[in-house]
Amino acid sequence: MKIVIGCDHGGLEHKNAIAEHLKERGFEVLDCGIYEQKSVDYPDIAKVVCEKITSGDCQRGILVCGTGIGMSMAANKIKGIRAACCSDHFSAKYTRLHNDANILCLGGRVVGIGVATELADIFMDTEFEGGRHSVRVAKIKEIEENN
Ligand code: RB5
Q: What pLDDT, on the 0 to 100 scale, is given for residue 89?
């Protein structure tokens, strides 16, 4: 599975650590930056990362900003993206099982690198349950189509 990852200045250390960890686990990781500590606008990074998902180049993505919230707001504006901002293990698991989230957003100023890395692992390792949840995800898509 190919993963795309990106961050703003609120999440550089986390992004680097998670990218390294996932590579060590054998995932192909496309790092869309940033690559050095400088101030950037998180929607610009969210856009680049989401395009890698909507184009089919990558199957899942991870975005890190200070809170994870700005990244998730920006990402969820893009058709085909279901981004979940998570800071606990239960949410990271169930957003895959029930929502088929394709982007995990993390807050570099909210969770430590250890927790963030575990959340990324759960997100990568959990498959969508389908069944009744497919109907609900289809309704999300319908809202997207009509608005
Ligand atoms: C940047 O200072 C900060 O606003 C950003 O990283 C993020 O937390 C936005 O939601």
A: 98
Using most ligand atoms within 8 A of CB, pick from 9, 12, 65, 105 the residue to mutate for ligand 1: 65
With CA atoms as reference, report the closest residue to 95 among 71, 72, 117: 72
Is 86 in contact with 122 (CB distance < 8 Å)?
A: no
Catalytic residue among 58, 65, 85, 86: 65
Q: Which amino acid belongs to residue 70? A: G
Number of domains in the chain: 1
Q: Please spell the DSSP secondary structure of 74-116, one letter per residue.
A: HHTTSTT--EEE--SHHHHHHHHHTT--SEEEEETTTS-HHHH
Q: How much is the pTM?
A: 0.98
Task: Residue 121: give its domain's CATH number.
Answer: 3.40.1400.10
13-50 tens-digit pLDDT? 999 999 999 999 999 999 999 999 999 999 999 999 99
Banded pLDDT at 134 (limits 50, 70, 90): very high
Q: Which domain holds residue 11?
A: 2-146
Two structure tokens written together for 40: 């950037």
